[in-house]
Design a protein that fits this description.
heterodimer; A: 243 residues; alpha/beta; Rossmann fold; six-stranded mixed β-sheet; 35% helix; B: 235 residues; 74% helix
Chain lengths: 243, 235
């Protein structure tokens, strides 16, 4: 099966010389959802920013058969939708409808077509009632849904979600997971939330110091790297530890 | 916060809220021109100019006291210059300055309080204002909420760590502003990335705006007639 994303030997250093990616190899197949796990600063977000050309490192990257290079960026950004960790960065237009229509308008749709696409995407995420509202009046969960709608309106083949559960309470996390499960696109989910990764991903990769050091099932990787969600040992009321 | 209150007022429903933003902008311009060219502002003339604004505010069900208080923000500036005029022996000019500045601010406030900013900016753009300027205002307003939220978080954090009653010394205030600036800069980079990721190529395209209907034209004609009548009467 032809991969949707293929990355070989990706390396990247920030301007100050800090190494961020040290030879990453990665493949995403059609229909699969992959969780990117790893500690803060391990290179997950830097990696996904390479996928649509926000950052440029050394190595080979292709998305839907197109090599990630300047001349292909408009087409690649149509195919890969990146949902940012902080929705406030993504929701920059003055109304929800305008924001969701931003991408379709950039794709060259007429205002009428863009509005229709935006309304359809808002309906997909259950936010059609908020079309006329200002983004800063929305709750964190609503902002995340609108940010996702802004990406869905561009009809991408791949969704990349950077820490999608940040600022969301547990019901909103569950709603988001249910919503994402219904979407047919292949997905990459950058997360620290093992439960969320387990609910969505068919496999996971673990980043450490700019490399993918392990690949496998979410539970398997969580166990291996001690990323299970329990906080232990429990401290009882009398202050003595249970070992 | 001032902009939050205005934002919530502008999203209410009334006959004035429903009018085409271009009509409101044209009427505002006509009102300001009429007011600006009035030579003297004795009490009766001031009342005549205030009446259409009071009617508009009533029509939009804007809270009168809050509106009057917010309008008073211009008084410290205009009162200073009015005082100079009065001290120079030209009391009439001083009064006119005060009345005109207060009424001008009230007129601007009534329009901004009855028109959500996206529609207002669309109206300005449709009337030929430079797109770049519109975009700058649009972004400034959008991120005013985010940056003021960050400033409040920083203030709370300072108070939580013992900063007395939220007052900062000059050095600490300067430091806080520098941090706020750095955060705003980082935010701006994030926004730019988000724009690029959705295919932005240096231009922001907008959805089509409103279409003026019969009621808008009738409102425009009525408004112009009222402003012209007040201006002619005050000659």
């Amino acid at each position: 099966m032809e991969p949707l994303i293929e990355v070989r030997g990706l390396r990247f250093r920030y301007e100050d010389g800090t190494p961020a990616l040290e030879g990453v190899d990665f493949r995403l197949l059609p229909g699969e959802t992959v969780a990117l796990l790893g500690a803060n600063g391990s290179g997950k977000t830097t990696f996904v920013h390479h996928l649509n050309g926000l950052l440029t490192g050394e190595g080979f990257l292709s998305v839907c058969g197109l090599q990630v290079e300047k001349k292909n960026l408009p087409e690649i950004r149509r195919k890969i939708g990146l949902v940012f960790q902080d929705s406030d960065e993504q929701l920059f237009m003055p109304s929800v409808l305008e924001d969701v229509a931003f991408g379709p308008l950039n794709l060259g749709l007429t205002p009428e077509q863009a509005e229709a696409e935006a309304k359809k995407a808002l309906a997909e995420v259950g936010m059609e009632h908020a079309a006329a509202r200002a983004p800063y009046h929305l709750s964190a969960g609503e902002k995340k849904r609108v940010a996702l709608a802004g990406i869905l309106a561009m009809r991408p083949a791949i969704l990349v979600l950077d820490e999608p559960t940040t600022f969301l309470d547990p019901p909103a996390q569950r709603d988001l997971a249910n919503l994402l499960r219904r979407l047919p696109q292949a997905k990459i989910v950058v997360t620290h939330h093992i439960g969320f990764a387990r609910a969505l991903a068919s496999r996971a990769v673990f980043f450490e110091k700019g490399r993918i050091v392990r690949e496998g099932g979410v539970d398997e990787i969580a166990r291996e790297f001690g990323w299970n969600p329990e906080f232990s040992p429990r401290v009882p009321a009398d202050g003595r530890r249970e070992d | 916060m001032h902009h939050v209150v205005l934002e919530s007022w502008s999203r209410q429903n009334s006959a004035l809220h429903a009018r085409d933003p271009r009509v409101k902008i044209v009427l505002l311009a006509a009102y300001l021109a009429a007011l600006g060219t009035a030579a003297r502002m004795p009490a009766l003339t001031t009342l005549c100019y205030a009446a259409p604004l009071a009617a508009a505010a009533g029509m939009a069900r804007l809270p009168a006291r809050a509106l009057l208080l917010r309008t008073a923000v211009v008084l410290p500036f205009s009162a200073t210059f009015a005082a100079f005029s009065m001290m120079a022996g030209d009391a009439g000019r001083g009064e006119a300055l005060l009345a005109k500045s207060y009424l001008s601010a009230a007129a601007v406030l009534v329009v901004t309080a009855t028109t959500p900013l996206p529609k207002l900016l669309w109206g300005f753009e449709a009337l030929g204002f430079p797109r770049f300027l519109i975009l700058v205002v649009q972004f400034l307003y959008r991120y005013l909420f985010v940056i003021s939220g960050q400033a409040q978080h920083m203030r709370l954090a300072a108070r939580c760590r013992g900063s007395a009653s939220g007052r900062l010394g000059f050095r600490r205030a300067a430091g806080a502003i520098a941090v706020l600036f750095a955060r705003s800069y980082a935010r701006a980079e994030g926004i730019h990335d988000a724009m690029l990721a959705r295919g932005a190529a240096g231009q922001i395209r907008l959805l089509a705006g409103a279409r003026a209907g019969g009621r808008d034209f009738a409102f425009l004609a009525f408004g112009i007639a009222v402003i012209a009548a007040v201006r002619i009467w005050s000659l």
